[in-house]
Design goal:
The protein is α/β, with parallel strands linked by helices. It is about 45% helix and about 15% strand. The chain has 6 helices and 5 strands, in the order αααββαβαβαβ. The strands form 2 sheets. The chain has a 3-stranded parallel β-sheet with strand order 3-4-5, with helices on one face. A hairpin with a 2-residue loop joins strand 1 and strand 2. Helix 2 runs antiparallel to helix 3. The longest helix is centred in the N-terminal third of the chain and has 16 residues. It starts with a helix and ends in a 6-residue tail after the last strand.
């Protein structure tokens, strides 16, 4: 019986991916390119600047470490605090619809992970973003710094209607 229990434990560890290594920076870069080619372009995202920003900004930097292997999946991912990072297509679609110009300054309400702000940071002069959940605001700011977006200002705050 003890042998059976050991085999079951071993099988459980193997099937859960224990010991798998996280993708390398080069593997993430290849996944970003596949995301652009297989998820965004076929769905009609055409703006070359938006496609270039989506191909450049490392989405994995805006996702909790334990979920980074799924960074370029075609769907939203949890980022904590009952929030999600939007599906890449949704980010690209919203950005394309905005028609951002290099001279624009953008105010984003609801930073979440900071990924949308980082995408916009590739396309406009400055991005100001505010998030009501303080840990998310701090995480968004750290993601922006890791991606070298010094022109992105993230802050925590809330407002009440009068």
């Amino acid at each position: 019986m003890r042998i059976v229990a050991q085999y079951l434990l071993f099988a459980a560890i193997v099937t859960t991916g224990c010991g798998q290594q996280a993708p390398t920076a080069a593997e993430f870069a290849a996944q970003r390119q596949r995301m652009v080619e297989q998820q965004l372009k076929p769905r009609g995202i055409k703006d070359e600047r938006v496609l270039a920003a989506m191909a450049k900004v490392p989405r994995e930097e805006f996702i909790p470490v334990d979920a980074r292997a799924d960074a370029y999946e075609d769907g939203p991912l949890p980022i904590g605090y009952d929030q999600t990072i939007s599906q890449p297509y949704v980010v690209a679609f919203m950005t394309e619809q905005l028609r951002p110009k290099q001279s624009d300054r953008v105010l984003e309400i609801g930073s979440g992970s900071g990924y949308q702000a980082a995408i916009l940071g590739e396309l406009v002069a400055a991005v100001y973003t505010i998030e009501i959940v303080e840990p998310l605001a701090k995480s968004a700011e750290r993601g922006a710094v890791r991606c070298d977006h010094r022109d992105l200002r993230a802050g925590e705050g809330s407002a009440t209607a009068c």
